[in-house]
Amino acid sequence: MLKVISISNYKGFYKPETINFSIPDNEKPGSGLTLIVGPNNTGKTTVIEALLLNNTTKKFKVTERHNDNPVIKIENSSGQITEYTNINNGSAIHMTGKEHNIKFELIPSRRFWSHQFNGEWEFNTLINESSNSDVRNSNPFNLGPMLKKILTTEVLKEKFDSSIKEIIPHFTDWTMDTNEANQDFIKYKTIDGWHQANLLGDGIISLFRIVAHLTHDEKSTFIIDEPELSLHPSAQKRLSAVLSKLSKNKQIIVCTHSPYFVDWSDFINGAKIIRLNKNHEKCVVNELNNTKDYSKFISQNFNEFEKPQLLDTSAKEILFSDKILFLEGQEDVGILKKWIIKEKKQVSFEIFGYGVGGETNMTLFLELAKDLGLEKVAALYDSNSISFITNEKTYKQQFLLKKLPTEDIREKVNHCKDIKCPYGKNRNGTFASNGDIKPEFKEKFEILFDEISNYFNSSKTPQ
């Protein structure tokens, strides 16, 4: 199986950038899943193309090479390293080292397939098609022979139907038939009878192909590009659950722009979360580290019944953001959004989820943002925050950290009935108890907000 790839001097990659991949442990769902996220044009397609270079009939195009020779190293789980480069910066691919023998099976973002077909399925033909396919522009794929193999093998048909029905609960049945031209075709069943597969919607056409690849019993490393395309959010979530379950035994790489394919339980079980970024027009690789304190926090809190919002879908959008503002709590988020709308402010950043769950968690999320390589990050603390000084020293070269003019976002009277309440029974707020800004803090808060907005709009780092 695939362990590591290193890419340098190839397309948007310059200095060597390394991606580590998850390897299934045959026990935990998600253990063999690697998620690659990031903005558009940060190198996700390039990574796929680099993985498929095991077909040495390909060429390094002039537009793909730099002044230095491209070098792509692939290491398998046995420690064997295969290197692909060229000689004298030519176009021919030169391979050195032991051949890794990893069978990469590409399921591209455009997943159309021919509903009419002839012939039998051959695994090596499938692998060759993956190696030779254009990741960006896929022609209709000859999926029929693979579906025929699944249909005529009882155990495979059961696996396929089980997965499809997990994603599309109302799906009934499918089979194969032959038309007058002696061509086989796939048809499916509804309450109205049987219909040819070419009448299926794009989403179900896409799911048929994804599930078919993942059903056959050959050993492959699966690369799925943008599985979310043409799928309703509910179907995305159910497909994500199927991928999680199957990755217990299969190595699956998913390139996605959808937060629905991120499940923190997979991360806890060993899934890799990779984010690709652009730094001065060069592709760079960032990775969440499952030994950091934020990983322990995720492990302890992702199922926390009292604070389900901390790591929900809205919070997972941090993986896909470029510019993000952290606030301490849910109330801070609600009040700030209300003020932005009322004041008709234009913002170029996103506010993180529903807050970080208290100032003590701010350090964890700042470190997570740093490991993701986010372009711009700001954090807004209450004026009496204990962790502000430490975090400002740690992150001031990277991020912008500011404090409210008061000890809370909103006025609170008798907020703490315990005589040992550390801040006293009353808390002074920048906003009144009804959520409107207090006149005496209006100018200060305007200046503070403008400073944060200017930071996100500027190309400069904090001073």
TrEMBL record:
One of its GO terms (molecular function) is ATP hydrolysis activity. Transmembrane segments: none annotated. Residues 1-96 form the Endonuclease GajA/Old nuclease/RecF-like AAA domain. It comes from the Bacteria. InterPro entries: AAA_GajA/Old/RecF-like, ATPase_AAA_core, Bact_Antivir_Def_Nuclease, P-loop_NTPase. Residues 112-263 form the ATPase AAA-type core domain. This is Uncharacterized protein. It comes from Candidatus Nomurabacteria bacterium CG10_big_fil_rev_8_21_14_0_10_35_16.
